[in-house]
Amino acid sequence: MRQAQIHLRSSVGSGFRAWNPPVPKLRPYQFATEAQKSLERCETAYTSQQQKIFHIKIDQMQVFLNRGVSMQAFSLEITSSQTSTAKFCPTSFDLENRVSFDHIFNTNEPINIYTDGSKIDDRTGCSFCVRENNISTSQWMAKLKTHNSVFQDELIAMKEAYTYASQSNQPIKIRTDSKSSLHSISSLKTNSPQAQNIQNILLNSPNINLGWIKGHVGHADNEAGDLLAKKATLKGIRTQYPAHRNYLKKKLHVISTQLWQNGWDNGDTGRNVHLILPKVKTSPAPCTDQKP
């Protein structure tokens, strides 16, 4: 709002001088104190803004994680990122007919590839093994970073298996005990970059089909793939893949909560409330008022 300027004739000379009315000062009670912020269970403007920045800016954090930089030392000033979207024409997307979710999966094909992923404590790995006429002919193992999820492990192993299978013209069946991975691959709306890479390979390799096989029921080839994935957590080829967005969001939540807690512990106001509510929370506090 433009401030009105009242021009008064000066008592000395014939000039004019501008007079601006004083801006009213805000009273102390008009400012949110640290106690208010804690009682309302809402994060401070600083940490809230950092979360907003994070949701649009994520790639640099992935690069830092891939280089082994600790999250505690990571700056929240990060660059932009966009969620991947599928780019296939619906009329040419026929993967639904090439993915089987029936646990009774025909094993009479000459070449079968079994994929699996494993996460044991802080160790992550994935693998695939190739069986030709019931004889193991090839295998692949990768050791991933701690921030990689089991879902990512499964898709990474499947992508490597599809890359291997795409070099052959023979009919090949790729099997996994991960239904979530198969659903992601067979969906036109998937946002997973790994799943989209697999889709691209499959659409250009009609000799490859895939299907679900029930895990941990005594199927020898699948159990061998599971043991190979566990071995990969220790002896696999060190491989780097970006962290999943959900993992980074959880990490950001931990960091922003720590910043909020530090501000609450070291603030100058609301010290009496701090004695009652020493810990900050993002969930609403239950009402404890009772009617007489």
Structural overview:
The protein is built from 9 helices and 9 strands. The protein is an alpha/beta fold and 292 residues long. It has a domain at 99-238: Nucleotidyltransferase, domain 5 (2-Layer Sandwich), CATH 3.30.420. The strands form 2 sheets. The chain has a 7-stranded mixed beta sheet with strand order 3-8-7-4-5-6-9, sandwiched between helices. A two-stranded antiparallel ribbon has the order 1-2. A hairpin with a 2-residue loop joins strand 4 and strand 5. Helix 2 runs antiparallel to helix 8 and helix 5 crosses helix 6 (193-203). The two termini are 49 Å apart. Mean pLDDT is 75; it is low at 1-13 and 71-86.
H-E order: EEHHHEEEEHEHHEHEHH
Query: How does CATH name the architecture of the domain at 99-238?
Result: 2-Layer Sandwich
Report the helical percentage. Answer: 25-40%
> Averaging pLDDT over every residue, what do you get?
75
Q: Quickly name the level 1 CATH class of the domain at 99-238.
A: Alpha Beta
Pairing-aware structural class of the strands and helices?
alpha/beta
Shape: elongated
**Count of distinct strands:** 9
Radius of gyration: 29 Å
Please describe the biggest sheet, giving its number of strands, its sense, and whether it closes into a barrel: 7 strands, mixed
Look up the CATH topology of the domain at 99-238: Nucleotidyltransferase, domain 5
> What spatial order of strands do you see in the largest sheet?
3-8-7-4-5-6-9
Number of helices: 9
Strand fraction band? 15-25%
N-C termini distance: 49 Å
Uncertain segments are 1-13, 71-86
CATH superfamily of the domain at 99-238: Ribonuclease H-like superfamily/Ribonuclease H
